[in-house]
Amino acid sequence: MSENQNPTHSIELTREATNRYVARNAAGVEVTFGRGEDLMSPVELLLAAIAGCSSIDVDTVTSRSSEPTEFRVEASGSKVAEENGGSRLEDLNLSFNLSFPDDDGGRKAAGLVDRLVKLSHDKYCAVSRTVEHGTPVEFDTEVTTGGETTTTDQ
Question: Which portions of the sequence form the region Disordered (predicted)?
Answer without folding.
Answer: 64-86
